[in-house]
Amino acid sequence: MNYISTRDKKTYFDFKSIFLRGLASDGGLFLPEKLRKYSKDDLQRLSKLNYFDLASEIISNFSEPFLKKDKIKSIIEKAYVNFDTKDVVKLNKINGVNLLELYHGPTLAFKDIAMQVIGLIFDEIDLNKKKINIVVATSGDTGSAAIAALKEKKDINLFILHPYKKISDIQRKIMTTCVSSNIFNIAVKGNFDDCQKIVKQMFNDEKFREKINMSGVNSINWARIVCQIVYYFYAYFKMQSKINFAVPTGNFGDVYAGFVAKKMGLPINKLIVATNNNDILFRVINSGEYKPLKVKPSLSPSMDIQVASNFERLLFHIFKEDDKKVKISMQKLSDEGFFKLEKDELNILQNDFEAERVDDSETLRIIKDFFVNYGFILDPHTATAVGASYKIKNESKTVILGTAHPFKFLDTIKLAIGKKIEPPKKFLGLTEKVEKFEILDNNLVELKKFILDKI
Ligand SMILES: *Cc1c(COP(=O)(O)O)cnc(C)c1O
Q1: Distance (Å, rounded) from C-alpha 77 to C-alpha 56?
Q2: pTM of the model
């Protein structure tokens, strides 16, 4: 499989190089040159596979010839041994609500599903005894998933930038109580967009990137998207009818994976983007204007994002694969702070996507009602997607992606239902553990210095 950049479709890359680089040197995001399209008969065949075989089938489309299907199969089997549900994910039907629980991995959020696989892909790469330094920005859940996947790896250091005081206590503790000499937690005095910007700047600084042999595992890494495509297929096969998916959205990675599944032939009606008050995606999908505003802290912190990086991949599609046009729009975004889609481009976008905004008070009410009526506790991110699904008016059934376990947002749950929830067994005693992290200014030079000092 050949890969291109959203800003240059003439230069080809292979899977291994895009896996290690994450971001193209022109600032664009990597995309496969073309997608495999499954026919109805193919889908019939895939519907009989278990999650592991389904994942091997889908992921190997993107990783061959570097990682062949058998290799992927052995990686998948290893990656998901610690998940506490048999099929990795679980479609739960709660009074007519179809909830796809994606949080049965080691750190209680859907990020584990891709990150566990990525951790094992690193083992397949011959590093020539050169240490890799991974720098990653997290809005709360990517960091812990990366730690769980990469701790104790001899040839890898992991630097995690989280926004200081802007993630939940439990999210932070899961990251900062991990004892492993290759893990460095950094709280940046800024928001997630600041953290993400710093990582992108480091990637685009060729000299620095080479000096530290830098790699990335943020949601712009194509391998993450690929692993997330699998559960859209899984859910469709369980539902056996054309469906909508409602997806709690921040950086546009998870819902974009659903879009790729649709392009590969999966009968998806609408992909419903749920946002909190950080509603850039709600605004662009409804009006065509892509304009980041100031980040506002919310009860669903993993979605407190205004620069939804993966949206650039969708732009490439909306612009009918015109790489120049993507480049011009991204330049306008950086110069003037916004760009706007033409009417026909907006139509293309709205053909596949709808968006709804769910604010904090609505989120709290949904968590409470769900608990009172069905005895089931939603996490605040998942609750935004439940809220969005209530507003959808088309005929198709909807599957809601459950992106995190409520324990990660203990205080919000207490606010909503008036009581504390018990930690899952693997996190008993977490709140008493000692934390280790550095607090640094939102400053590229200082962060580079910190990393250079540690390696
Ligand atoms: C990361 C995250 C999201 C947002 O996913 P994106 O791929 O960034 O859109 C939503 N909910 C939770 C719990 C998350 O951790």
Answers
A1: 9
A2: 0.96
What's the gap in Å between 139 CA and the centre of ligand 1? 8
Give the start-to-end residue ranges of the domains of the chain: 90-106+222-417
pLDDT digits (tens, 9 = 90+) for 194-251: 999 999 999 989 999 999 999 999 889 999 999 999 999 999 999 999 999 999 999 9
Can you give 428-448 as a three-state secondary structure string? CCHHHCCCCCEEEECCHHHHH
Cα-to-centroid distance, 111 and ligand 1 (Å): 8
The minimum-distance atom of ligand 1 relative to the CA of 257 is 7
302 touches ligand 1 (CB under 6 Å): yes
CB atoms within 10 A of CB 129: 6
Would you say domain 90-106+222-417 falls under CATH 3.40.50.1100?
yes
Residues 20-67 have pLDDT tens digits of 988 898 999 999 999 999 999 999 999 999 999 999 999 999 999 999
| 109 ligand 1 Cβ < 6 A | yes
Burial class (CB in 10 A: 0-12, 13-18, 19+), 341: buried
CB-neighbour burial class of residue 326 (10 A; exposed 0-12, middle 13-18, buried 19+): buried
Asked about 111 being catalytic, the answer comes back as: yes
Catalytic residue among 68, 90, 111, 154: 111
